[in-house]
């Protein structure tokens, strides 16, 4: 998923107008609703309950639409140094063709690079949960910045929210005084959501 597509998705996640219709069928959607990813346009689409149920079946959307899962699973620390991560805040997605792309949020959006497939497989061999990630719509989210040890499997929309947080809060060369507290708040909320998913 390329940077321009990530930017479009981040903008869509930020846009929460009341009474927004389902992007699939036009029916009203509640404030709390699911999303599907249009793989062709690389866009998140709001889905009403009926459409979410429809696309919950693996083959329902074919190669075009894919339901974004709701799983938020905290992992034991995953060694990411070998994956070429130059910063402590990054996420990894598996593309439809099996390629793994790493992204890291920045004040200009998301930078990205392709991960060596052999090194990724070595990491998966040591952390079997990564082998269960849904292609395109789930991500390995890592935060090892400033002494943190956060490793999660999350819906890809959470990563786009994080991109939006970084862009909104970043100032100056080092990020300023608000970006890191905002990132910490993001991960605290993620932990809450993860507990409710587990419960």
From TrEMBL:
InterPro entries: DUF5947
One Pfam family in the UniProt entry: DUF5947
Protein name (database record): Uncharacterized protein
Organism, as annotated: Saccharopolyspora shandongensis
């Amino acid at each position: 998923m390329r940077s321009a597509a990530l930017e479009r998705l981040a903008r869509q996640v930020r846009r929460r107008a009341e009474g927004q219709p389902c992007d699939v069928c036009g029916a009203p959607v509640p404030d709390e609703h699911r999303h599907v990813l249009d793989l062709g346009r690389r866009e998140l689409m709001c889905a009403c309950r009926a459409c979410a149920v429809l696309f919950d079946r693996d083959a329902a959307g074919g190669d075009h639409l894919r339901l974004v899962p709701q799983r938020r699973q905290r992992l034991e620390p995953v060694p990411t140094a070998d994956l070429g991560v130059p910063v402590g805040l990054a996420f990894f997605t598996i593309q439809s063709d099996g390629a793994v792309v790493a992204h890291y949020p920045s004040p200009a959006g998301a930078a990205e690079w392709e991960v060596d497939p052999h090194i990724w497989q070595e990491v998966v061999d040591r952390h079997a949960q990564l082998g269960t990630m849904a292609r395109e719509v789930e991500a390995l989210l890592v935060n090892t910045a400033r002494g943190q040890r956060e490793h999660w499997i999350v819906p890809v929309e959470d990563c786009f929210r994080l991109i939006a947080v970084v862009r909104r809060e970043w100032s100056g060369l080092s990020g300023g005084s608000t970006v890191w507290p905002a990132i910490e708040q993001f991960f605290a909320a993620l932990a809450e959501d993860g507990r409710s998913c587990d419960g």
